[in-house]
Specification:
Among the domains are: 116 residues, Immunoglobulin-like (Sandwich); 107 residues, Immunoglobulins (Immunoglobulin-like); 112 residues, Immunoglobulin-like (Sandwich), CATH 2.60.40.1930; 93 residues, S-adenosyl-L-methionine-dependent methyltransferases, CATH 2.20.130; 107 residues, Immunoglobulin-like, CATH 2.60.40.10; 164 residues, Glycosyltransferase, CATH 1.50.10.20; 96 residues, Sandwich (Immunoglobulin-like). The protein is built from 18 helices and 65 strands. The radius of gyration is 39 Å and the shape is globular. The protein is α+β, with helices and mostly antiparallel strands and 1260 residues long. Helix content is 17%, strand content 36%.
Amino acid sequence: MIPEAAQGTYIISASTDKGEQISHSFDIKEYVLPKYEVKVHLPSVITILDQEATLKICGKYTYGKPVIGSVKAVFCRNAIRFYWYSLTQENDLCKTYLLTTDKTGCASQIMNMTEFSLNKSMYDDSFDVNAEIEEYGTGVVLKGSGRTSFSSHIRTVTFEDVPAAYKPGIPFEGKVKVVGPDNKPVVNEPVYLFAGESQNATLTTNSFGMASFSLDTSLWKDSVNLKASSKKTDENEPYVPNVRRPEYRSAHHHVTAFYSKSSSFLKLMQVSGKISCDEDATVRAQYIIQGEELNKGQEVLDFFYLVMSRGGIVQHGRVPVNVKAGSVNKGELTISLRQVTDLSPFAQVVVYTVMPSGEAVADSQDFPVQLCLNNKVSLKFSSVQNLPAEKTTLSLQAQPRSICSVRAIDQSVLLLRSEQELTVDYVYSQLPLQKLSGYSYEVEDSEPYPCFPLPVPEPEIELELEPVPEPEPELEPEPEIVPDAQAARRAARSIYFGPNNLKNDVYSIFKEIGIKIVTNSDVKKPYDCRDRGYDRLYYDMDRVDSPVPMAFNMMPQSSGGVLKGKDEEKKEIVRTFFPETWIWDLVTVGDSGSVDVEKKVPDTITKWAAGAFCVSSVGFGVSPNVGLIAFQPFFVSLTLPYSVIRGEVFTLKATVFNYLSKCIMVKVTLADSDSYTFRDCDGCQYSVCLCGEESRTFSWIVTPTALGKVDLKVSAEALRTDVLCGNEVATVPDMGQIDTVIRTLLVEAEGTPQMVSHNALLCPSEGPAEKKISLLLPEMFVVGSARASVSVLGDLMGRAMKNLDKLLAMPYGCGEQNMVLFAPNIFILNYLKSTGQLTQEIQDRATRFLESGYQRELTYKHDDGSYSAFGKSDVSGNTWLTSFVMKSFGGARPYIFVNPSHIKDARRWLSRHQRPDGCIRSVGKLFHNGMKGGVSDDVSLTAYITTAMLELDANATDPVVQNCLRCLKEAVAGQLDNLYTTALLSYTFSLAGDEEMRSKLITLLHRKSSTQGGTRHWDRAVASRKGLDSLEVEITSYVLLALLSGPAMPEFGLDYSSGIVRWLAQQQNPYGGFSSTQDTVVALQALAKYGAATYSVEGSTTVTVTSLGGLNKEFTVDQSNRLLYQEEKLSEVPGEYTIQAQGQSCVLAQISMHYNVPPPPDFSAFNISSNIMAKCNTSRPQLILFVDVRYQGRREETNMVIINIKLLSGYILDKSSLKLLKSDSSVKRVDVEEGFINIYLDGVRRSGVFILVFLNKSSL
């Protein structure tokens, strides 16, 4: 990415030739790496029985040392909000604690939990903590948060690994799990198991909170209810509304007998834990085979098995078992699982046999397998801690001949924004299918109404039904209704309980693991139509809905990027290398399966997080993450903002840390430089004693004088001295007596940013096309602020498409400006759709803008259906903006939901303002200058509204439209001296289909056009010529729309239009927009219409950019990348450049230049003055900014005015100040952006306006 890349979220996509695609997003933004992280430690759960709980907040630098500072923590239990509940609701229960960290960097507080209404039910089942630590000396504040759950469940018992059905004669096995309120296992505690009325057992939990059981099923009949409880007897307390009591939750499980016609069964036995992936495994199965089901003299019965993983059969086999006919055969068989790694994450095993009688006997089980990858990758540093700038060895082991990607990044970056770590678990989570279960509806064996026509009535209604004969199996009988019972049955609404889902037959065994069987064997349990099906109404009541108590260390977006130093035996260590990403390499592993990579540790004192993944012929592998701490016991760290403005004064803070066991005398100095000036702060000392585990912060007042990256050099020296530090003589480190840090600070230019773009639409189909561009700087500009880049696109709409969210270099805070984020999406989507280039990704992005723009615009809507710049804070709606919104909402309907009433209400409101002569009266404040003056404000406005209605539904016979057209024709018959109105009318009559008026107006406009160098446009005589005239863009765009919105006219075909397009393309700003709202919207609409009319999929083009300074850069544009934005930085500013295109397709090239200019000394329409007052006697310094804005132009009052205040580096707007601004009646809106405040005013009179702003010092 070039340095000028716009801030925001970017998406990078990778695809394969099979059409597989994956995307990943990343942000480009200005940030300062956090110095440390704040962790909130809470109990994993707080129970209803707890009287006290301990809150602990810790600050740690990334290199592991404690942060010393003050702590503020707010601990809350929030009330549940019922928005439909109007009676008095509970308030949040919060308490604030002010603490100080100890030498371990932690602060603890014992909280009285009786203050938080633990027995009331109208509060959330959680506690939230928001904490912040302010580092002593620097004032850096970082935040952390935490949450823990609240539970009234003292014990929760659940059944684990229990089947849904038992097999008579085979022990019923399972486990009972007991957890406490924190969801952690309860160890060595009795749990009471009851099986029906006759069986019970007392179990004891193991170290995992589990207790296994095995129950004899030989005497079980039909269904059995199991219950497990942590209490021997139930204790029922009286219910009190809204009062919670301690709960001891038991588990219930309902099992039915597995169906087997012959009472032959097969049971796969459970394994403990997960199957290891490092070696082959075996699973066991017990069987009972009734001998009378075997053939006479049969001695062997074959059992078959299938092993499935990730949705496919990976192993299968046969296991012969010796049997004896005529007697009951009981025994056990084993199945080997091979290449277990390939079975992760689950081995789904089914074992079955088919008896000579046709009955199938089977069982299935899911066996979890440890998550392993075939390519075993490991990573290790030669030591866990190194000095900065010291050499270290990174050892990598993987499958021989693997190619590995190795990375190591500063832990501070991960604290700023945690990344998606590449782990074995993450790799397996990306599998499209982990295991199969059940059938899709297409292959489900549905047997509707197997007992029809015998309905099952509800129990409370007794009906006498005539006997109904059993239906023939092959026929589906018609229902027979008993006449006498018909009315009663209608009231009873006969119940059919549906198919058997109790998983108690062989069919369900195969269905459970997703294997579809085609067989004539006996696999389904027959339906008993006399059974009312009550058993099927049982629910397994394992109480697994207990809360999952958890305490999060919700890391603030914070953590340490503290600078580090390296102890060498030299007297002075100079540290200059502070990367955020240290290692980002591709490494090849040789035949030995290992490789050592030698690296130099960066100068940052932090923890480096390293990881690797590898690919080879055996597959993919990923290493566990490893860390390396770069640390030295005596070092200096700088606290810097991300950037400052040249000439601004800021405070540079340097903190010296001493982690030696002895005291030292430290002298700290800031080096002189030509790039900045500095002075000592008042009363500051720069030589102090510093004992073990202590730190001290030193400050200088610095003023940058140079632009760009400025190096700040600070040295901390341990002095040899006889002066006592405390009660001991100051010592000097054996190594690294002087630690010097050189950090880079970005210094930005003062003044007002300006941008100039030079565009070239080059169509080389008839030979090479080129354009020469001179980059010239004005006489007055800020030296060093100029920068330039060249970009190439293969599509006329590509630049606007890339910058849909920032088409204009202006704020988007009013109803009109918001539409610039809305309307262009419609034109671009229509264009891409008509040319077949619309991808799902582009549509999703544009749709997001449409949806947010639509919702935002509704906030500017009045109750009568109209819209205005600031909504209901304006006296009335505005006719022009209402029509603009109406047509835009209509155009968005194919892509998002738009409430039809919003369009209908707007149209009705506009119609109410139609005068008898057909013209529409202007209502509300009109910010669009093009509709003022000329023939009549109302004529231009009427033409615009007519155009909007015709674009909405193309109904020229509508009475309102007809009356408007009558008004406009009368205006044309009069004196047309306004070029803007003429151009707008030409488009209006083109949409209305009035070819006579269209031809007359376009001919008139043709005579007034200006041509130069193959371009054509329309000038305004009164234009200022100081920059791009937005009305000239709009006029030219309306003419282009008129030409493209009707039948082709002789002498005004696409060749004529191409000159207009070439001129419009040259006026685009670097973001694809133009100079203001309306010209951007109309021009993009016209360009999209032209692009669709001239689109071609043929050919490719090569663009070459050269300069007198020797630049030679080549871009290639073809059908595959015509929407790709290609950009390169230019180093010669000012400079002479030539852009040449060779090929078949048109390309749009642009050279854009950015620079800053100082405030103009000459006359300005506004006079701005400001004063600052400082409040330094508070914990956080505050500035009060007074801004006085006065209008000194020719009018009495301006149109809408935006006051843009760029904040001083290191300061942010105080929230109370925001409320104060919004309460001012002259202020319509206030937007706060990164480093800026935008204040919107309806207008400014000569008397001026006075703005008061409070600024707080930022925590970073």
